[in-house]
Write a structure and sequence with these properties.
By secondary structure, the protein is an all-alpha fold. It is 79% helix and 0% strand. The chain has 14 helices and no strands. Helix 2 (15-36) crosses helix 14 (249-283) and helix 4 (58-91) packs across helix 11 (203-218).
Length: 284
Amino acid sequence: MSDTSRGHRELAPALPLALLFVVAFVLPLIALVAISLYRTPEFLDLSPVQYLRFLRDPFSLRVLADTVMLGLEVALCTLVLGYPLALVYAASGTILRIALTFLILLPLLTSTVVRTFAWIVILGRDGIVNATMLSLGLWDSPARLLYSWGGLVLALTQIQLPLMALPLINSLLRLDGNLAKAAEGLGAGRFRVFFTVILPLTLPGAIAGGLLVFAAAATAFITQTLVGGGRIILMPSYIYQQSMGVQDWPFAAALSLIFTAAVIGIVTAIGALSRLATRGQHAA
């Protein structure tokens, strides 16, 4: 049997997956590009006017900037919470690790709608947070936690935390514990050990988790819509409004492509910077 025939046989099991990728991603992407090039919602005339319309519209640019900022803020919050959780996991015994694994994976095992409605109950005017604060006398009146930027960041942080915690845990478990012990033996305190030993060596896991969280939070249409409400307009809801509400399909297609390119561009840029930082550490 020739090498070419053997190669074809090895690639044969991947053909169904490749066909699914073409049907579910490539063809819709081509359709979006074609629709975005129409000048009017009636699909008359071909022109890149929809992209120029976006670039000339301060509101659209602000919506894109807010969406990117939301993804970055949620990624930063999950990073701050993920490291202590990962450190506790790495220092725990078998039974506690099993319990922590279940708690970390629990958000991924429940529906996004269920998790989002739970946060609506928690953050609502008569929700758990307001009721507790009022009963303790810490607040004079219910605070507006729901349909606010802070409430949205908080909900997305809890929902996306597993995407950050799991890569961090994996990086910490692969870390040689003798390195931290050696640093402590040389007189370094816990904070110095963390920032000079643990953090640099687990940075690839942190960046991988940050990329996952950023992409998931920026595109979380259900949570953004239900927790953010109509007061916070972000790209997923903006695209929905233009397509289903205004019926401006060319502009909605252009928004989708611009948003996709922005997310991919940011993820690629952060990934490239992380590789450069990792190479610098290895060179040092």
